[in-house]
Amino acid sequence: LAGEWLDRVGLGDFGKRRPGQLSGGQAQRVALARALATDPALLLLDEPLAALDARTRLDTRVELHRHLAGLAGPAVLVTHDPVDALMLADRLVVVEDGRAVQEGDGESVTARPRTDYIARLVGLNLYRGTASGRTVRLASGEVLATSEALEGDSFAAFAPSAVALFRSEPDGSPRNTWRAVVAGVHRHGDHLRVQLDGPFRAAADVTPAAAAHLGLEPGQEVWAAVKAAEIRAYPA
Prior knowledge:
By secondary structure, this protein is α+β, with helices and mostly antiparallel strands. 27% of the residues lie in helices and 38% in strands. Helix 1 packs across helix 2 (24-37).
């Protein structure tokens, strides 16, 4: 049984190694195999994938997900990695400053974040304001046109990929437009993540070609635009 679990975590040839002969990541995988091998009635996992390299983390996550799906009892996973949480958990509880601020399944939490921290984790721009019909007025006085009609205290959220950047004010009425200042530009996957300051802070994702065309650099003034259909509004 021990050899079988070592195989599952990619350490089938390490059965005769002493603890001091293992790297931190290897020791982490041995600890995971040891916990799973007992078929526990209650499984507590505290950052089980934290010490693993990217490739090993991916493989171990898949194997752990398979085992958790067949576990008869409950499992509690503590992690700072949103990917681990979304891939492994049926229900999420997000804790900030020792207080649970949101809970639900992965779809509801990622679609409707309720704090700036959660919005950053799932990659959304999030604002809170007062809704009236299809607009949300923010505390700064700015108004966002949205895709849903609501009344009262509300959140408005949109993805960085929904933000278009221009050198001058764009034409067209159905979009939210505002002047912004580029606060920073850094690589984000295949795109560049542009941090914007202005009436309200936002993140925008653009292609390297678009960034080169706009000549984006910190301190530069640009116009940002988001279509109302791209902004999701929901009760706060």
